[in-house]
Design brief:
Helices cover 39% and strands 15% of the residues. The chain has 277 residues and is α/β, with parallel strands linked by helices. Keywords: NADP, Oxidoreductase.
Length: 277
């Protein structure tokens, strides 16, 4: 069980990935994202998750360079956007992301959404980048079980990560079981359900008081105890610190089960079977 902010899980290819990172979705390019990433790195985060479509890769790269943290200590994730999917276009998109980040490689490159008729060719490009040692790990995002099953029929390399919407209202148990069975590390985006309803839910208020933590910290701890890598997004320094302070307590099995009981299979983001972008 993770005991420290720098603790890692080992992906199926042997690469170490931190259990907790900073997400920068909807964080504005420029000062906002630079400040957010710089704060996280000062606090001790070593994993930063961005994407081409977020439009803030340049700011992320600047903050990384300004931080003084050695590159090999960091775990940087970015993603190929839907409009760039396909073999040649994905290779070009990767080069563009590297240019914007100002990096020689990223640690994890993901297919952002399972674009029908395209994600297999996109995956072939990721396998090429991986074979050429231009990226340390490759994976997918927002893939349901059936997308993974389809991809695994032709993939030469199994995805190392599947990053999906995951929180107590969307516990994704069949998907989590499938990923564990196949050695694919599941990762949570919107772990706090974008702040809606969960943080004021009576169960989290109760558990926060019991453990001397905040409702958000209880939720993030639940993720980690379920074996899910987590990347809460924040631009507030105090919240970035708070989100990282989840390694000095452990939820009881009974309390984990009570949180599990909140699942409603309810999304705040798009359904990977019905998205139009």
């Amino acid at each position: 069980m993770a005991k420290h902010l720098t603790d890692t899980t080992t992906l199926h290819n042997g690469v170490a990935m931190p259990w907790l990172g900073l997400g920068v979705w909807r964080v504005a390019e420029g000062q906002e994202v630079e400040h957010s990433v710089r704060t996280a790195l000062e606090v001790g985060y070593r994993s930063i998750d961005t994407a081409a479509v977020y439009g803030n890769e340049e700011g992320v790269g600047r903050a990384i360079r300004d931080s003084g943290v050695p590159r090999e200590q960091l775990f940087v994730t970015t993603k190929v956007w839907n409009a760039d999917q396909g073999y040649d276009s994905t290779l070009a998109a990767y080069d563009e992301s590297l240019r914007k980040l100002g990096l020689d490689y990223v640690d994890l490159y993901l297919i952002h959404w399972p674009v029908k008729g395209k994600y297999k060719e996109t995956w072939r490009a990721l396998e090429k980048l991986y074979a050429d040692k231009r990226v340390r790990a490759i994976g997918v995002s927002n893939f349901h079980v059936h997308h993974l099953e389809d991809l695994l029929q032709t993939a030469g390399v199994k995805p190392m990560v599947n990053q999906v919407e995951y929180h107590p209202r969307l516990a994704q148990r069949p998907l989590l079981a499938f990923c564990k069975e196949h050695g694919i590390q599941m990762e949570a985006w919107s772990p706090l359900m974008q702040g809606k309803e969960l943080l004021e839910h009576e169960l989290f208020v109760e558990l926060a008081a019991k453990y001397g933590k905040t409702p958000a910290q209880v939720i993030l701890r639940w993720d980690l105890q379920n074996g899910v890598v987590t990347i809460p997004k924040s631009v507030t320094p105090s919240r970035i610190r708070e989100n990282a302070d989840v390694f000095d307590f452990e939820l009881s099995a009974e309390d984990v089960a009570r949180i599990d009981g909140l699942n409603l299979d309810r999304r705040v983001g798009p359904d990977p079977d019905n998205f139009d972008f």
